[in-house]
Amino acid sequence: MDTAPRTIIVGAGFAGLAAAVRLADAGRSVVVVEATKAGGGRSRSFHDKVTGREVDNGQHLMMGCYRETLAFLDAIGTPAGDIDLQTNLALTMLKPGGAKVELDCPSLPAPLHLAAGLLRMRGVGVLHRAAALRAGLLLRGEIARPDDNETCDAWLRRLGQTSTIRAAFWEPLIWAVLNDDPLVASAAMLVAVLERAFMASREASSLAVPRRPLSSLYVDRAVARIEARGGEVRFASPARKLELDPEGQVSGLVLKSGERLVADQVITAVPPHVLLELLPDAARDHLVFRDVARLESSPIISLWVTLAEPLLDRPFVGLIGSPLHWLWDRDRLESSAAATKPGNNLLSVTISGARSFVNDQPDALRELLIGELTRFFPDARPTIQAFRVVKEKRATISHAAGTYRRRPETASPIPGLSLAGDWVRTGLPATIESAVQSGHDAAQRVLSPR
């Protein structure tokens, strides 16, 4: 057994690596243990034999308000050009038949940029734009008194949002950031995102899309940073059980191999069900961990499609009134030269909150895709050359109204154990930003224990 005091971090996704980098930069001895061979958690990439490309487990979107994430990427040396960050928020949504609804916010201070963008939104009538503007004007009051028991659907009804503006603006936003149905998703979680994105600065609301596969965006660089500062990252090293001393303080971790690692602090950066498996049996009876056991998950399905010819004339679009929520032209995002080259165009399709489809076979999902492309691109005749389905059945926790209180704080009931992950109580929904913030919060707790 290694007797040197150190911090063990379980999990090498955004949360775990962010915590490890922050600690290593502060001179703390860290060891990261990761169950898989390559890390990345639920934000990873892999080589897909079907499409012949490096693809993500799901298309991920960031925003200018992702302060913790952008700071983490900057710390590990990720080039600014690896993130396609808009100058001003711009969105294009397609109606069945191909008509466009376009939001293009001007260069005005926040939140005037959003108000002006909503007023001049193209593709919806003036009454619908006025309804959206009304919600924007009331937003500051909503931020002051968020109610986690109110659903997004009830919130939109209370603010007088029309069905048209809901379908064109609000519901795509809800599916994207909450990964859940507006009928059940928490309005408080939506308002938390709106506050950060639209009330701080104009730049905060700009969309940021990775221009390269996720693992190469952050995993490799973070590992190199940790190792350069004397830390260690162990892949293919599943954790089996957290160890406590007779006083109930964390004393180390047992790996599946049987190896025991000594530590004075442990940070778990894993999904809820994995955390519960690591805990000693008696600890699971604590009220905090009983609440964790009650957290439910929401799936995401990603369809990776190789087309003979490009379908989109821009990097991404949303679909109104479709079970397919977003289409992404990966070639336009990754390389402008590849976007104009026919014969191998890679399209990523996102189905958020995909409970109704998560058990469907690939052939059924392929038929769904063909039918929806026919509805939204009636003049196109896309030829599918390769088709790959990636299902993340536990992509995020469910953000159902009334469940935020079940999410645990960073400080756990077990002395020496800190909790990280996009699902802990960060004040945000389970996003990349929430994951990185949780990792930084856990690192700070190790460095400055209370």
TrEMBL record:
MF (Gene Ontology): oxidoreductase activity
Source organism's superkingdom?
Answer: Bacteria
Q: What are the alphabetically sorted keywords of the record?
A: Oxidoreductase
**Is Oxidoreductase there in the keyword field?**
yes
Q: What is its EC number?
A: 1.3.5.5
Q: Which organism is it from?
A: Enhygromyxa salina
Which top class of enzyme applies to this chain?
oxidoreductase
Q: Where is the Amine oxidase domain?
A: 14-447
What PANTHER family would the database entry show?
Answer: BLR3003 PROTEIN, PROTOPORPHYRINOGEN OXIDASE
* Protein name per the record: 15-cis-phytoene desaturase
Cross-referenced InterPro entries: Amino_oxidase (IPR002937), FAD/NAD-bd_sf (IPR036188), SQase_HpnE (IPR017830), Zeta_carotene_desat/Oxidored (IPR050464)
Higher taxonomy: Bacteria, Pseudomonadati, Myxococcota, Polyangia, Nannocystales
